[in-house]
Amino acid sequence: MNFDFDVIQRSWVYLFSTGMSFTLELTGLAMVGGITVGTLLAMMRLSSIKSVSFAATSYVNLIRSMPLVLVIFWFYFLVPYIGAWIIGANEPIRVGAFSSSLITFILFEAAYYCEIMRAGIQSIPRGQVWAGYALGMNYWQTMGHIVLPQAFRNMIPVLLTQTIVLFQDVSLVYVLSITDFVGAAAKVAQRDGRLIEMYLFVAVVYFVLCFGLSALVKRLQQKVAIIR
Amino acid sequence: MNYNWNWRIFWDASPDGVGTYMDTLWSGLIWTLATALSAWVMALILGALIGTIRTMPNKWAARFANGYVELFRNIPLLVQMFLWYFVMPELMPAAIGDWLKALPNSSFITAVICLGFFTSSRVAVQVSAGINALPRGQKMAGTALGLTLPQTYRYVLLPMAFRIVIPPLTSEFLNIIKNSSVALTIGLMELTARARSMQEFSFQVFEAFTAATLIYIVVNIIVVNLMRFIETRVAIPGFITSGTAGAGGH
After folding, report:
1. Do residue A206 and residue B75 have CB atoms under 8 angstroms apart?
2. In which residue ranges of chain B is pLDDT below 50?
3. pTM of the entire structure?
4. Which fold is adopted by the domain B13-234?
5. A2 belongs to a structural domain
């Protein structure tokens, strides 16, 4: 058996500039979108209006009982129809690979971020909400100025841990033949017939990144912890 | 918008020769459950072992177990699938590698091994969290009574810890069922793959995916209720603290 790790030297620029940049961009945007939608979902779940909280709970439970691969397929086919419905077109519109997977990941991860934010909001003593109302603040002011800033701070480590999971999950866009980091590596591997070297390299890169990030999150956790 | 709904498609014959599209999805479900259950058995055994080692006083043993957990946690499942399927047989001696590749259900076996190791690291985290959730006095009392360390684990710590970790293990079990869908990348014809192939042959995208989604939801509900039943049967009276380790993950 002969190894040829030269293939990595030949292709690493392509792997990182095309593949990894796609993965990172998708991870970053999906994180921002997912946390935003997730926070809104969490607020809906905790709403005193029954129908609102029921809708949010059903959505979260539905998404959480489906495998990500199936959700990716769902949205890949569904998004063109929804787009057509929004702009009133007759034919399903064409949606690029990036926007399609971005929508998928925002809506999928939102269900998971929602559960984290719900725990964060519930960790704030009820008295603070009442104090806000007593001061004459409305719901959005109380949430925006009092509850959410603390909830975020309490949950930063968990949110970031979930983001590392998201970073790993992005690799599943491979099933749509998109050139993310794994997709790029798979293309080079098949072209050059160097599967062993490429997949080992991909594994090492992911391991180093995720391990390093988790270590950072752990340190951050000690830093941001609110002393009570 | 013009999409031709055709819910009767499930009774049409499918080109893969299994029978109707309904049979196609059914056999997908069987493969999903077979993969998830076999991998779950493996994950439980390995995870209990590694999780216990993580809490041992021996520094090197704990370090090894931590390394094991980090290794399987920090590589995406998809990449791990590829490593087991494409890389592993090549790194073996040629004879074993060829034998592995020629196995009739090689993608099933690979998926089970991969999911088993992947999930075992998560089970290990829960098990060691369960052991650590026990009051320190229990271990001390065990050794004070003259039990050796293995005996303390065997008769005092583990029986408690295993019962405490059942609730968090429920979500890991749900995860392994969902994660088995990643095995479609190495050619395992499980439920999601079957739905996808049904979509490709029949062009009835949304019917196929709706059916698969409903099946996953039903499986989820059955598992949750089954585990809730087990939980109430084995719950330790008066012991509410569950050894849930950091949330996150699917």
Report:
1. yes
2. 241-248
3. 0.90
4. MetI-like fold (1.10.3720)
5. no
